[in-house]
Design goal:
Elements (H helix, E strand, L loop, with lengths): L2 E5 L11 H9 L3 E7 L3 H6 L5 E5 L11 H23 L3 E4 L5 H10 L4 E5 L6 H6 L5 E4 L11 E3 L6 H4 L3 H8 L8 E5 L6 H9 L1 H7 L1 E5 L15 E4 L6 H7 L2 E4 L3 H9 L4 E3 L10 H11 L3 E3 L7 H12 L2 H8 L7 H12 L2
Parallel strand pairs: 1-2, 1-4, 2-3, 4-5, 5-6, 6-7, 8-9, 8-11, 9-10, 11-12, 12-13
Helix pairs in contact: 3-4, 7-10
Protein backbone atom coordinates (compact mmCIF):
# COMPACT_ATOMS: atom_id res chain seq x y z
CA UNK A 1 0.00 0.00 0.00
CA UNK A 2 1.25 3.45 -0.94
CA UNK A 3 0.34 6.83 0.54
CA UNK A 4 -0.49 9.76 -1.73
CA UNK A 5 -1.03 13.43 -0.98
CA UNK A 6 -3.22 15.34 -3.42
CA UNK A 7 -3.36 19.11 -3.48
CA UNK A 8 -4.79 21.96 -5.52
CA UNK A 9 -7.62 24.40 -5.32
CA UNK A 10 -8.98 27.88 -5.58
CA UNK A 11 -11.58 26.72 -8.10
CA UNK A 12 -13.45 23.47 -8.74
CA UNK A 13 -11.39 22.97 -11.89
CA UNK A 14 -8.33 22.43 -9.70
CA UNK A 15 -9.99 19.60 -7.79
CA UNK A 16 -12.64 17.73 -9.81
CA UNK A 17 -10.28 16.35 -12.51
CA UNK A 18 -8.19 14.73 -9.77
CA UNK A 19 -11.13 12.80 -8.31
CA UNK A 20 -11.00 9.86 -10.78
CA UNK A 21 -7.33 9.42 -9.90
CA UNK A 22 -8.06 9.42 -6.18
CA UNK A 23 -10.90 6.92 -6.67
CA UNK A 24 -8.62 4.59 -8.62
CA UNK A 25 -5.96 4.67 -5.90
CA UNK A 26 -8.54 4.10 -3.17
CA UNK A 27 -10.04 1.18 -5.08
CA UNK A 28 -6.71 -0.59 -5.17
CA UNK A 29 -6.18 -0.08 -1.43
CA UNK A 30 -3.87 2.93 -1.28
CA UNK A 31 -4.13 5.76 1.24
CA UNK A 32 -5.07 9.25 -0.02
CA UNK A 33 -4.88 12.57 1.85
CA UNK A 34 -5.99 15.88 0.35
CA UNK A 35 -4.40 19.17 1.42
CA UNK A 36 -6.47 22.20 0.49
CA UNK A 37 -7.29 25.70 1.67
CA UNK A 38 -9.33 26.55 4.75
CA UNK A 39 -12.04 28.12 2.57
CA UNK A 40 -14.05 24.90 2.63
CA UNK A 41 -14.30 24.61 -1.17
CA UNK A 42 -11.89 21.74 -1.66
CA UNK A 43 -13.16 19.91 1.42
CA UNK A 44 -16.73 19.98 0.05
CA UNK A 45 -15.60 18.78 -3.37
CA UNK A 46 -13.80 15.69 -2.03
CA UNK A 47 -16.20 14.91 0.83
CA UNK A 48 -17.89 12.07 -1.07
CA UNK A 49 -14.58 10.19 -1.29
CA UNK A 50 -14.39 9.79 2.48
CA UNK A 51 -10.69 10.67 2.55
CA UNK A 52 -8.69 12.56 5.13
CA UNK A 53 -8.64 16.30 4.49
CA UNK A 54 -6.12 18.79 5.85
CA UNK A 55 -6.22 22.56 5.38
CA UNK A 56 -3.46 25.14 5.28
CA UNK A 57 -3.25 28.92 5.20
CA UNK A 58 -2.98 30.09 1.60
CA UNK A 59 -2.12 33.30 -0.16
CA UNK A 60 -3.38 33.99 -3.64
CA UNK A 61 -0.71 34.54 -6.28
CA UNK A 62 -1.73 37.69 -8.13
CA UNK A 63 -0.16 39.09 -11.28
CA UNK A 64 -1.37 42.62 -10.52
CA UNK A 65 -0.90 45.18 -7.75
CA UNK A 66 -3.18 44.72 -4.77
CA UNK A 67 -2.87 45.65 -1.10
CA UNK A 68 -3.95 42.08 -0.38
CA UNK A 69 -0.58 40.99 -1.75
CA UNK A 70 1.05 42.51 1.33
CA UNK A 71 -1.02 40.27 3.60
CA UNK A 72 -0.50 37.22 1.43
CA UNK A 73 3.28 37.73 1.57
CA UNK A 74 2.98 36.47 5.14
CA UNK A 75 0.31 33.86 4.48
CA UNK A 76 2.37 31.92 1.92
CA UNK A 77 5.30 31.23 4.33
CA UNK A 78 2.81 30.11 6.98
CA UNK A 79 1.27 27.73 4.45
CA UNK A 80 4.72 26.36 3.59
CA UNK A 81 5.49 25.74 7.28
CA UNK A 82 2.15 23.99 7.76
CA UNK A 83 2.79 21.92 4.64
CA UNK A 84 6.25 20.90 5.90
CA UNK A 85 4.71 19.61 9.12
CA UNK A 86 1.91 17.76 7.30
CA UNK A 87 4.12 16.16 4.65
CA UNK A 88 6.68 15.13 7.28
CA UNK A 89 3.94 13.55 9.40
CA UNK A 90 2.04 11.84 6.55
CA UNK A 91 5.24 10.65 4.82
CA UNK A 92 3.70 10.13 1.37
CA UNK A 93 5.33 8.16 -1.42
CA UNK A 94 4.42 10.90 -3.89
CA UNK A 95 2.46 14.16 -4.07
CA UNK A 96 0.04 14.97 -6.89
CA UNK A 97 -0.68 18.65 -7.59
CA UNK A 98 -3.59 19.85 -9.70
CA UNK A 99 -2.47 23.45 -9.47
CA UNK A 100 -3.98 26.70 -8.28
CA UNK A 101 -2.56 28.93 -5.60
CA UNK A 102 -3.30 26.33 -2.91
CA UNK A 103 -0.73 23.96 -4.42
CA UNK A 104 2.49 25.98 -4.21
CA UNK A 105 3.16 25.65 -0.43
CA UNK A 106 2.59 21.88 -0.59
CA UNK A 107 4.75 21.41 -3.70
CA UNK A 108 7.60 23.49 -2.30
CA UNK A 109 7.46 21.75 1.09
CA UNK A 110 7.48 18.34 -0.62
CA UNK A 111 10.56 19.32 -2.63
CA UNK A 112 12.35 20.41 0.54
CA UNK A 113 11.55 17.02 2.09
CA UNK A 114 12.64 15.18 -1.07
CA UNK A 115 9.18 13.81 -1.77
CA UNK A 116 8.60 13.51 -5.55
CA UNK A 117 5.81 15.64 -7.04
CA UNK A 118 3.71 14.87 -10.11
CA UNK A 119 1.70 17.88 -11.31
CA UNK A 120 -1.02 18.34 -13.90
CA UNK A 121 -1.67 21.42 -16.06
CA UNK A 122 -4.98 21.57 -17.93
CA UNK A 123 -4.60 24.82 -19.85
CA UNK A 124 -2.78 25.34 -23.12
CA UNK A 125 -0.47 27.84 -21.40
CA UNK A 126 0.56 27.28 -17.77
CA UNK A 127 -0.84 29.54 -15.08
CA UNK A 128 1.31 31.41 -12.58
CA UNK A 129 1.07 28.72 -9.90
CA UNK A 130 2.19 26.04 -12.38
CA UNK A 131 5.16 28.15 -13.46
CA UNK A 132 6.22 28.75 -9.86
CA UNK A 133 5.91 25.06 -9.02
CA UNK A 134 7.70 23.82 -12.17
CA UNK A 135 11.29 23.78 -10.75
CA UNK A 136 10.13 21.55 -7.88
CA UNK A 137 8.14 19.05 -9.95
CA UNK A 138 9.41 15.61 -10.98
CA UNK A 139 6.85 15.15 -13.78
CA UNK A 140 4.53 17.73 -15.34
CA UNK A 141 1.47 16.09 -16.92
CA UNK A 142 -0.19 18.05 -19.72
CA UNK A 143 -3.51 18.13 -21.56
CA UNK A 144 -2.19 19.29 -24.92
CA UNK A 145 0.90 18.49 -26.99
CA UNK A 146 1.43 22.22 -27.64
CA UNK A 147 1.80 23.13 -23.96
CA UNK A 148 5.29 24.12 -22.85
CA UNK A 149 6.48 24.39 -19.25
CA UNK A 150 9.75 24.82 -17.40
CA UNK A 151 9.42 21.38 -15.84
CA UNK A 152 12.34 19.14 -16.78
CA UNK A 153 10.10 16.19 -17.54
CA UNK A 154 6.76 16.70 -19.30
CA UNK A 155 4.27 13.98 -20.15
CA UNK A 156 1.16 14.46 -22.30
CA UNK A 157 -1.58 12.52 -20.52
CA UNK A 158 -4.79 14.42 -21.10
CA UNK A 159 -7.26 14.72 -18.22
CA UNK A 160 -9.07 11.77 -16.62
CA UNK A 161 -12.75 12.05 -17.47
CA UNK A 162 -15.39 10.89 -15.03
CA UNK A 163 -16.90 7.52 -15.86
CA UNK A 164 -20.42 8.96 -15.80
CA UNK A 165 -19.46 11.17 -18.76
CA UNK A 166 -17.77 8.39 -20.71
CA UNK A 167 -20.70 6.07 -20.04
CA UNK A 168 -23.41 8.62 -20.84
CA UNK A 169 -26.49 7.19 -22.55
CA UNK A 170 -28.58 9.28 -24.95
CA UNK A 171 -31.71 7.18 -24.36
CA UNK A 172 -31.48 7.75 -20.62
CA UNK A 173 -30.97 11.47 -21.26
CA UNK A 174 -34.02 11.55 -23.52
CA UNK A 175 -36.12 9.78 -20.90
CA UNK A 176 -34.93 12.09 -18.11
CA UNK A 177 -35.85 15.18 -20.14
CA UNK A 178 -39.21 13.65 -21.10
CA UNK A 179 -38.57 13.83 -24.85
CA UNK A 180 -40.18 11.63 -27.46
CA UNK A 181 -38.19 9.79 -30.11
CA UNK A 182 -38.90 12.52 -32.71
CA UNK A 183 -37.53 15.44 -30.73
CA UNK A 184 -35.64 18.30 -32.35
CA UNK A 185 -31.83 18.45 -32.29
CA UNK A 186 -30.58 19.03 -28.75
CA UNK A 187 -28.53 22.12 -27.93
CA UNK A 188 -26.89 22.12 -24.50
CA UNK A 189 -25.78 25.47 -23.05
CA UNK A 190 -23.48 25.54 -20.04
CA UNK A 191 -21.47 28.39 -18.56
CA UNK A 192 -19.46 26.56 -15.92
CA UNK A 193 -20.26 25.48 -12.38
CA UNK A 194 -21.59 28.93 -11.46
CA UNK A 195 -23.25 29.68 -14.79
CA UNK A 196 -22.34 32.61 -17.01
CA UNK A 197 -24.51 35.71 -16.76
CA UNK A 198 -23.53 37.08 -20.15
CA UNK A 199 -24.34 33.79 -21.86
CA UNK A 200 -27.56 33.39 -19.87
CA UNK A 201 -28.82 36.80 -20.98
CA UNK A 202 -28.31 36.13 -24.69
CA UNK A 203 -29.78 32.61 -24.54
CA UNK A 204 -32.89 33.94 -22.82
CA UNK A 205 -33.23 36.80 -25.27
CA UNK A 206 -33.64 34.27 -28.06
CA UNK A 207 -34.98 31.27 -26.09
CA UNK A 208 -38.29 31.21 -27.94
CA UNK A 209 -36.59 31.46 -31.32
CA UNK A 210 -34.06 28.77 -30.43
CA UNK A 211 -36.84 26.49 -29.22
CA UNK A 212 -38.39 26.55 -32.69
CA UNK A 213 -35.47 24.53 -34.09
CA UNK A 214 -33.81 22.95 -31.04
CA UNK A 215 -34.55 21.27 -27.77
CA UNK A 216 -32.59 23.65 -25.55
CA UNK A 217 -31.04 22.38 -22.30
CA UNK A 218 -29.78 25.46 -20.46
CA UNK A 219 -27.60 24.96 -17.37
CA UNK A 220 -27.68 28.47 -15.93
CA UNK A 221 -26.10 28.19 -12.47
CA UNK A 222 -27.41 28.33 -8.91
CA UNK A 223 -30.10 30.95 -8.33
CA UNK A 224 -30.32 31.87 -12.03
CA UNK A 225 -33.58 30.22 -13.11
CA UNK A 226 -35.96 32.48 -15.07
CA UNK A 227 -39.57 31.76 -14.13
CA UNK A 228 -40.87 33.73 -17.11
CA UNK A 229 -39.53 31.06 -19.48
CA UNK A 230 -40.84 27.94 -17.71
CA UNK A 231 -43.76 27.66 -20.12
CA UNK A 232 -41.63 27.78 -23.28
CA UNK A 233 -41.89 24.41 -25.01
CA UNK A 234 -38.54 22.75 -25.85
CA UNK A 235 -36.66 25.03 -23.44
CA UNK A 236 -35.42 23.25 -20.31
CA UNK A 237 -33.47 25.17 -17.69
CA UNK A 238 -31.55 23.80 -14.74
CA UNK A 239 -29.39 25.37 -12.08
CA UNK A 240 -27.09 22.36 -12.19
CA UNK A 241 -27.18 18.83 -13.58
CA UNK A 242 -25.35 16.22 -11.55
CA UNK A 243 -25.90 12.47 -12.04
CA UNK A 244 -27.62 12.88 -15.42
CA UNK A 245 -24.95 15.15 -16.94
CA UNK A 246 -23.25 12.36 -18.86
CA UNK A 247 -26.59 11.25 -20.33
CA UNK A 248 -27.50 14.81 -21.32
CA UNK A 249 -24.13 15.32 -23.02
CA UNK A 250 -24.52 12.02 -24.84
CA UNK A 251 -27.84 13.29 -26.20
CA UNK A 252 -26.45 16.69 -27.24
CA UNK A 253 -26.03 17.52 -30.93
CA UNK A 254 -24.44 20.93 -30.24
CA UNK A 255 -22.91 22.39 -27.08
CA UNK A 256 -22.47 26.08 -26.26
CA UNK A 257 -19.87 26.43 -23.54
CA UNK A 258 -17.14 28.44 -21.90
CA UNK A 259 -13.68 27.29 -22.97
CA UNK A 260 -12.10 26.23 -19.72
CA UNK A 261 -9.53 23.52 -20.43
CA UNK A 262 -11.40 20.76 -18.63
CA UNK A 263 -14.71 21.52 -20.36
CA UNK A 264 -13.03 21.76 -23.76
CA UNK A 265 -11.16 18.50 -23.21
CA UNK A 266 -14.43 16.73 -22.36
CA UNK A 267 -16.19 18.08 -25.46
CA UNK A 268 -13.33 17.01 -27.73
CA UNK A 269 -13.10 13.57 -26.16
CA UNK A 270 -16.86 13.07 -26.53
CA UNK A 271 -16.71 14.45 -30.11
CA UNK A 272 -19.36 17.08 -29.48
CA UNK A 273 -19.63 19.95 -32.03
CA UNK A 274 -19.41 23.13 -30.04
CA UNK A 275 -19.52 26.90 -29.91
CA UNK A 276 -17.13 28.42 -27.37
CA UNK A 277 -17.63 31.72 -25.56
CA UNK A 278 -14.35 32.28 -23.68
CA UNK A 279 -14.01 34.50 -20.64
CA UNK A 280 -12.65 37.89 -21.75
CA UNK A 281 -9.32 39.35 -20.66
CA UNK A 282 -11.11 41.74 -18.32
CA UNK A 283 -12.02 38.86 -16.02
CA UNK A 284 -9.30 36.27 -16.70
CA UNK A 285 -5.63 35.84 -17.60
CA UNK A 286 -6.67 34.96 -21.16
CA UNK A 287 -6.33 31.19 -20.83
CA UNK A 288 -9.84 30.53 -22.13
CA UNK A 289 -9.19 32.73 -25.17
CA UNK A 290 -6.04 30.75 -25.93
CA UNK A 291 -7.85 27.44 -25.46
CA UNK A 292 -10.66 28.55 -27.77
CA UNK A 293 -8.30 29.87 -30.47
CA UNK A 294 -6.35 26.60 -30.36
CA UNK A 295 -9.54 24.57 -30.89
CA UNK A 296 -10.85 26.87 -33.62
CA UNK A 297 -7.59 26.79 -35.58
CA UNK A 298 -7.89 23.02 -35.78
CA UNK A 299 -11.50 23.10 -36.89
CA UNK A 300 -12.80 21.56 -33.68
CA UNK A 301 -14.81 24.55 -32.48
CA UNK A 302 -16.47 27.80 -33.46
CA UNK A 303 -15.65 30.78 -31.26
CA UNK A 304 -17.85 33.77 -30.43
CA UNK A 305 -16.00 36.30 -28.21
CA UNK A 306 -18.11 37.43 -25.28
CA UNK A 307 -17.95 41.07 -26.37
CA UNK A 308 -19.47 40.02 -29.72
CA UNK A 309 -22.06 37.64 -28.28
CA UNK A 310 -25.54 38.77 -29.32
CA UNK A 311 -28.71 37.07 -30.42
CA UNK A 312 -27.72 37.57 -34.06
CA UNK A 313 -24.13 36.36 -33.67
CA UNK A 314 -25.24 33.26 -31.78
CA UNK A 315 -27.88 32.36 -34.38
CA UNK A 316 -25.34 32.92 -37.17
CA UNK A 317 -22.82 30.65 -35.43
CA UNK A 318 -25.45 27.95 -34.96
CA UNK A 319 -26.38 28.13 -38.63
CA UNK A 320 -22.73 27.90 -39.68
CA UNK A 321 -22.04 25.00 -37.34
CA UNK A 322 -25.19 23.19 -38.42
CA UNK A 323 -24.16 23.39 -42.07
CA UNK A 324 -20.78 21.82 -41.33
CA UNK A 325 -21.42 19.24 -38.60
CA UNK A 326 -20.02 16.29 -40.53
CA UNK A 327 -16.74 18.02 -41.28
CA UNK A 328 -16.40 19.23 -37.68
CA UNK A 329 -16.86 15.70 -36.34
CA UNK A 330 -14.28 14.35 -38.79
CA UNK A 331 -11.74 16.93 -37.64
CA UNK A 332 -12.42 16.09 -33.99
CA UNK A 333 -11.44 12.51 -34.77
CA UNK A 334 -7.89 13.89 -35.04
CA UNK A 335 -7.96 14.85 -31.38
CA UNK A 336 -6.16 11.98 -29.61
CA UNK A 337 -8.02 10.09 -26.92
CA UNK A 338 -5.61 8.80 -24.30
CA UNK A 339 -6.14 6.54 -21.33
CA UNK A 340 -5.37 9.49 -19.09
CA UNK A 341 -6.17 7.75 -15.84
CA UNK A 342 -3.80 4.87 -16.50
CA UNK A 343 -1.04 7.17 -17.75
CA UNK A 344 -1.16 9.34 -14.63
CA UNK A 345 -1.47 6.46 -12.15
CA UNK A 346 1.45 4.69 -13.82
CA UNK A 347 3.53 7.85 -13.56
CA UNK A 348 2.66 8.22 -9.87
CA UNK A 349 3.82 4.65 -9.30
CA UNK A 350 6.98 5.20 -11.33
CA UNK A 351 8.21 8.20 -9.35
CA UNK A 352 7.01 7.02 -5.93
CA UNK A 353 9.86 6.70 -3.46
Amino acid sequence: MKTFIFTGGGTAGHVIPAKPIMKELLNRGDSVVFIGSNSGLEERLVADLGIRFESIVTGKLRRYFSLQNLIDMFRVPIGILQSLLLVARIRPNVVFSKGGYVAFPVVFASWLLRVPVVAHESDLTPGLATRLCAPFVKTQCLNFDSTRTRASNSLVTGTPIRKDLLNGDADRGREWLGLNSRHKPVMVVVGGSLGAEEVNVVIRDCARKLAENYTVVHVCGAGNLDTELTSVESYHQFEYIDEQWGDVLALADIVVSRSGANSLFELLTLRKPNILVPLPLATSRGDQIENADYAEERGWSLVVPQEKLTQDSLLAALELLGSDLGSRKEKMENFPIRDSLTLIVNELDRVAK
